[in-house]
């Protein structure tokens, strides 16, 4: 469960109509607000005061929104557009049928896997909100836990994307190798597979 100090608790329902008025939305996305989202609640406002942290100019507030979904595969563009067009840093806790996942926007949308709500954890760690925000990115966006932890969050996210791209290529070539009947072609695919696995190993 996610539990921040009571001083950060807001628990205020945000009318979906407020998003229509203040966000630049296509007609399609306006419809998605109705078809995909049941209710949006501003659950926590994390500031230096509410978390008893040092003041920080880079990040002055992080909002945690709980979004009750009408369907599990709600359009992720809804959360992207809310985050992009808001001056605050945002975390979305998506809830559907007893399962939850976290979403965070940082150049693009990152989401955790669905899991029972009682198993979900999110910790606010750091001396100021900028460090806390980076910690949230690590907990939500860094889905591959690297053995290499050096570098800032941008470098680590780029490394993760490279790992995921290589893993997809490896899985594709493994399927092709298993299905290939011609010995020469099978050997060529196997050599490519070894090369990709070595590249993956080098950045892991």
Describe the structure.
This protein has 204 residues and is of the alpha+beta class. It is 44% helix and 23% strand. It contains seven helices and seven strands; from the N terminus they run E-H-H-E-H-E-H-E-E-E-E-H-H-H. The protein has helices at 16-22, 27-36, 48-51, 77-84, 129-140, 153-179, 183-203; strands at residues 9-14, 37-46, 62-69, 89-96, 99-106, 108-111, 115-116. Strands 1, 2, 3, 4, 5, 6 and 7 form a seven-stranded mixed beta sheet that branches. Strand 5 (99-106) and strand 6 form a beta hairpin. Helix 6 (153-179) packs antiparallel against helix 7 (183-203). The radius of gyration is 21 Å and the shape is globular. The model has no long low-confidence stretch (mean pLDDT 89).
- Biggest β-sheet strands, sense, barrel: 7 strands, mixed
H/E order of the elements? EHHEHEHEEEEHHH
Average of the residue pLDDT scores: 89
- Shape designation: globular
Q: Tell me the distance between the termini.
A: 30 Å
| Count of extended strands | 7
Compute the CA-based radius of gyration.
21 Å
Number of helices: 7
Beta-strand share of residues: 15-25%
- Structural class based on helices, strands and sheet pairing: alpha+beta
